[in-house]
Structure formats: structure tokens, C-alpha cells
DNA sequence: CTCCTTCCCTAACAAGTGTTTGGTAGATTA
DNA sequence: TAATCTACCAAACACTTGTTAGGGAAGGAG
């Protein structure tokens, strides 16, 4: 009746890996139980439902990301430095919560429509405000170009950051800070040699 | 026994919309039949299986995209112009096959592992070669920066282009050519004002 | 009118789904 | 030693899944 937090976390991590690898809907609880070395029913000693696992996985990541973003904004840096910090923070979160980010990236749109996952939509609005505000401030300050559709730019930045979770492998060739550096270099200066 | 091609295409388009909106695994054939105004079993007069629908939807899009890319490469333009043409062609395909692209973007990774969808992996290699080759040629010619990880840049370009399918709405504010223009402007020159 | 083709419905199938219930081995506590 | 708690198993539950088989209404062709 009172499962240990350690085991709880272990199983949650296992579930996250399977969800990320095979998709939430395509994943059966028996598949998760297999990966954890137990039977399907036994999972219900630790969790209320399959949905509850997903909820906990996403919330764990999103709460931490929100904290990270808020800390960046609280630092009150210039717009360019804020953008750099937001991007770097994002790639760090991808490094720490790769599976959760991959799941979020794939399922958030449909989940946000479900009543149970309404909080995803709220969180998205919060993040959007962080990015859009920074971009607008940058345009106003003259450090970002003013001839771009700012909403389109926001989507470009957001999407490219988060899709990285689909190919990023922790312990791989690139550290998150290095990816952030290269990514920022492209977004800020472009890939063309100035002519 | 010999369904008409028109009805076949209609139903395929309906299925594509539902797949794109709710995800392939989460979509039941009864849901598709509902959207088409018929019963689940009736679909099997037109299609062999749910998988066959998906296969046909993806192949229709991928074949056309492959033709488009090949035509661009055959034109033998400079690297920068080739990149511009590839991006523009991609956004045009998103405009024409929005649903198919959204499905492809979300499911291709897992599908490529299935034997039936092996051809997806082949196609991906083909596309990767088109992009990577263009980037490499550009670096060699001195029109693209040589201080970037070219593979990272490729992923950046690829992901941002295709992820647009998840928010793009045909008939919306932006025409595909306009999106391509703005996108290219960001990728080539960056969002920062040169200092 | 009759035959044939097209397109759909009705009704069911076996397999797989998330979940529940009752039980139990083994450690921990009293 | 006895009682309790933790973490799992065994077996089943109601329901949904993709799919199939047979039938029939509508319309054109002979």
C-alpha cells in the first residue's frame, strides 16, 4: 500500500524509456512490465494507471523546466544573453530528461486536448511567453532583426530545440553545452558566409 | 471487388486527416469509418488493412517529394541556390500533403523498424544525401561556414523544415513560399543584427 | 425483366487491451 | 515466535481492437 520512492522512480524511468521508444499508445502495460521484469498487474501496486505514469513522467520534466526558465528570466539579462541562456537550459533538460522530452514532443499536442492533461496547455503558454517576450525585447532593443515574423521565428527556435531530443543520445559525441553553442551560432549568425 | 479510384482517394484523404489529428496507433478503424460516414467493416471493401492505408498515404507523399528533390538536384544549381530550392520544395510539399507529412514526422522512426515499412529507411538515406551533399558542396565552395558540425547543421535544417507540418494550416496567414523565404532568411543570415 | 457490378451493412470473430481481486513469499517489526 | 508490511504473482474481468463473411440495396447493361 505504500511503495518505496526508489522503486517508484526506477519503474517510472523504465516506463519513460519504453514510451519514448515505441510511443505511448503503442506501448502496452505488459511491455513495460516485461522491461521491468515483472507482470502487468504488479505495476498497479506502484501506479494507479497507465495514464498516471505518463502524467508523472511529463510533470517531472515540465516542473523542472519551468524552474529553469524562471531562473533565467529572473537573472534579467539582455535579450541576446537571455536567448542564449534559454537555449542552453533547454539542451541541459534534454540531456537530463531525454525520454520525457521525446514523449512530450510527440504526444503533447493530443494530450493537451484531454481534460486530465489540461495543465500541459497552461505550461505551453508560459513557455511561449518566455520565448516570445525575449524575442520582442530583442527586436525593440535592436539586437534581433525586425524584418522577421516574430511568431514564425519563435516556432523555428522552439521546434529545433526540442526535436533534438529525438536524435540526442546522452554520453554521445556532443555535450549539451556544445550543441547549444553550435545551435545558437546557427540561429544567431546563420549558416551563410556573409558576402 | 473493383472500387473506384475517386472514392479510394477520398477515403484515403479522410484517413490521413484522422491519423494526423489523433495519431496512427490511437486511431481506430471505426473512427475513420465514422469520419467517412460508414461502418468499420465497409472500409475493407476499399483497403486490405489499416496498415495498407498508412502505407499508401506515406508513399504518395514520399514518391512526390523524391521526384521534387531529384528535379532540384538535376538543375545543377550552386549550393546556396540548391539549398533554397530544396527548402522551398519542402514547404510546397507540406502545403500539398500536410496530413501525410505530419504523420511521417511522428511515426517514421518507429515505422522504419518494421519490415513492411523498410522502404522508409531507404528514402530517408536518399533525402539525407541530398541535404548533406548540398551542405558539403557549399562549405567546399566557401558559401557556407566551415566552422559548423555539418551533421548537426543538417539535422537543424531538416527538423525545422518538417516540423512546420505540425502547425501549418493551408489557407492560413502564410503561403508556403513566404514561409520558405523567411525560414531561409533565418537559416542563412541568422536572427541577430550583425554588430 | 434479369444479371451483374458497386458499395455498403449486419453480425460476428479471435486476439489483445487496461485493470482488479485475492493470494503469498520474504523481510521487518514487536 | 507472532504479526505486519512490502512487493510481487496468478488468474481473471469487461471491453476494444482489426478483420472477415454473407447479404442486400441501387443502378446500369443485356
UniProtKB/TrEMBL annotation, chains A, B:
Protein name: TetR/AcrR family transcriptional regulator
InterPro entries given in the database record: Homeodomain-like_sf, HTH-type_TetR-like_transc_reg, HTH_TetR, KstR2_TetR_C, Tet_transcr_reg_TetR-rel_C_sf
UniProt KW keywords: DNA-binding, Repressor, Transcription, Transcription regulation
A molecular function (GO) term: DNA-binding transcription factor activity
Pfam families, A to Z: TetR_C_24, TetR_N
Chain residues forming the annotated DNA-binding region: 28-47
Domain HTH tetR-type, chain residue ranges per copy: 5-65
